[in-house]
Structure prediction request, 320 residues.
Amino acid sequence: MSELNRVIHEPARLTILALLSSVKEADFLYLLRETGLTKGNLSTHLMRLEEAGYVEIEKTFRGKIPLTLVRLSSEGRAAFQVYRKSMKDILTPTKGRRVPVQLPT
Amino acid sequence: MESRVDVDEVSLRAAKYWMEDGLVELMFGLMMMLASGIPLAARALPKGSLETFMSPFGNQAISVASIYATTWGLKKLKERITYPRCGYVAFPQPTRKRRTVVMGFALLIVVAMALATLLLADYRGLLSRLFVPAAAATFAACFLAGGLQYKQPTMLWEAFLTLLFATILGLFTNLRGGQGFEALTTMVGVSMAIIGAFRLRRFLKTNPRPRETQA
Prediction:
């Protein structure tokens, strides 16, 4: 577990990154709906991801309505792929590798 | 939020969300109806002012115009209906390599069909009869693959309906070859538009337009 990226490993942030991984960009409202987080929680997690350099946040307007666009940075995409690979390696048993089990005496 | 995250499922949500409002099916259905229905209807009319539609150039112009009009319409409707209610999502543009592969594959199919028509000229009647079932099988396979990949039950229904329409055309009409294909595409288009309209109605019911759309 020590190899896992702790910023990404948190479920809410992992969900945000997984959502952003398949799109070019998404707005705050979409992420709010899909993650089921509160506005405050989502903002906090997005700030944490932005600090880590994993997402880019752009505040703009659509007409007169404020629009917060979020997209995965190239660094974030790479980190997410590394995280997924690490998780797969941990969860997929390697052929021939046996997990030692200690039976009670 | 659950502590365990199914990353594969979450990654598919954007594609599901894109289909959820039914607008894609509605506009794609309209496109098929326009591109095939107009030439089919024009052909059924007596020769006259609509004769131009029957020419290959007229058909191509209608197809291209339908594609552009429905793509533009889809974009505008998404902006007006979906994004204010449930949020905006943009998908990455296909890379040049991917576009080249798709175009190459499409070209290959066209060349193969042209060659088959030339080489098998003696079997033109048979080819004409096989054209609609082959097209229906291709459409159904595409719907089936999309439905299973993105977990869209309506696409499975569309696959079934496509095969049903092809069977009806084969058993109860004399439409073969190009005309049969146009009739099939029109019927599939109508069914897609109806399914899309029902999905849109459900989407609008479950997602009323909020007063405040942003944080």
The beta strands of chain A are 25-27, 55-62, 65-72. Helices of chain A lie at 6-9, 11-21, 28-35, 39-51, 74-91. The first helix of chain A runs from residue 6 to 9. The first strand of chain A starts at residue 25 and ends at 27.
